[in-house]
Design brief:
single chain; 351 residues; alpha+beta; Creatine Kinase, Chain A, domain 2; 8-stranded antiparallel sheet; globular
Length: 351
């Protein structure tokens, strides 16, 4: 698989299927692993990073579950290619900042990705559409078990898996769920909800993970600490919190729909109108407007577009995707024009 092949199908995190997919965009399990007696990536020298890269890619090639994967060496990618992979949630922004001795392994369905030499030697990620953490963990666990037979993991019985960040030590697991919470944002309840879960040791991040803003009413919620907790316990705790947030979002939607339907319909249809008619539009405005149209779809107020086309617009209108589609670098102004053109075309507007 070549990197441009990814343009031809949608990302797993925007497939729009699975349990509670009206609110839960995706479920993700990430496992941090390191190799015994080799410095963590931030302290490793070039030779050690290359050693890890070779060792891990050789191990992956021997595992049947990972036969349909491609290794993308970051040193062979330009800045647009790397940002493209970040936009598809296949690797982190931090991983894209360096190249030597670093790679990301991606399966053909974009469900599995493995970052090599990010903060840890391996950052294995499995994503599923909808609220599906247990099935996601089932896949991640099987891959991890196979890799453990091929790789000398850094592990101590009293501590668990050793990681660069102490909060990941233990299981090395981060479970996270991407939520779309427009009603809680519009009713100004979201800050209270997020403050409450922070007290329970859960992190909240934006659309593209650590250090990013909650654009388009998307929030990524994950466990903060893994030391002293088993995998099933971590997933159970996350599931309990997410179920509560889903219920609060449903209640906020019902309240707005029953008491402020005219205002809600106006806001949603104005957003849809701008998307259909704009000739210049920024990435941030696009995400915010698409978020409201998605809410309209979920509430049955918008019937002019199907979920698949709408979901595709969340990713195909991002900066690197626009440049991959055009096969050339574009200025910010050129991207804003191209983005509007693509949106009008996908929404069925001819000019």
């Amino acid at each position: 698989m070549k990197i441009n092949d990814l343009l031809s199908h949608g990302s797993e995190w925007l497939r729009g299927t699975g349990p509670n997919s009206d609110i839960v965009i995706s479920s993700r399990i990430r496992l941090a692993r390191n190799l015994f007696k080799i410095s963590f990536p931030h302290w490793a020298n070039k030779k050690q990073c290359e050693q890890v890269l070779t060792t891990v890619t050789d191990a992956v090639s021997k595992i049947a579950l990972l036969k349909q994967t491609t290794v993308f060496n970051l040193s062979a990618l330009d800045s647009i290619d790397k940002q493209f992979l970040v936009e598809r949630h296949l690797m982190s922004h931090d991983h894209a900042q360096k190249s030597e001795g670093r790679a990301v392994i991606v399966d053909n369905e974009e469900i599995v990705s493995i970052m090599i030499n990010e903060e840890d030697h391996l950052r294995m990620q499995v994503m599923q559409s909808g609220f599906n953490l247990y099935e996601t963990w089932n896949i991640a666990g099987k891959i991890d078990d196979h890799l453990a037979k091929e790789l000398p993991y850094a592990f101590l019985p009293d501590w668990g898996y050793l990681t660069a960040c102490p909060t990941n030590t233990g299981t090395g697991m981060r479970g996270s769920v991407m939520l779309h919470l427009p009603a809680l944002v519009m009713t100004r309840q979201v800050d209270r909800v997020l403050a409450a879960i922070a007290k329970l040791s859960f992190n909240t991040r934006g659309l593209y993970g650590e250090g990013t803003q909650a654009l388009g009413n998307f929030f990524q919620i994950s466990n903060q600490v893994s030391l002293g907790h088993g995998e099933e316990e971590i997933i159970g705790n996350i599931n309990g919190i997410i179920r509560q947030i889903i219920e609060q979002e449903h209640q906020a939607r019902e309240l707005m729909f029953s008491k402020n339907r005219a205002m809600l319909e106006d806001k949603i249809n104005r957003s849809f109108g701008i998307l259909k008619s704009a000739y210049i539009i920024s990435s941030q405005e696009t995400i915010e407007l698409l978020s409201l149209v998605r809410l309209g779809l979920d509430l049955g107020l918008i019937k002019h577009i199907d979920q698949a086309r709408l979901n595709d617009l969340f990713i195909s209108t991002q900066p690197a995707h626009l440049q991959k589609i055009e096969n050339k670098k574009l200025t910010s102004e050129e991207r804003d024009v191209k983005r509007a053109q693509i949106i009008r075309k996908r929404l069925g507007v001819s000019n």
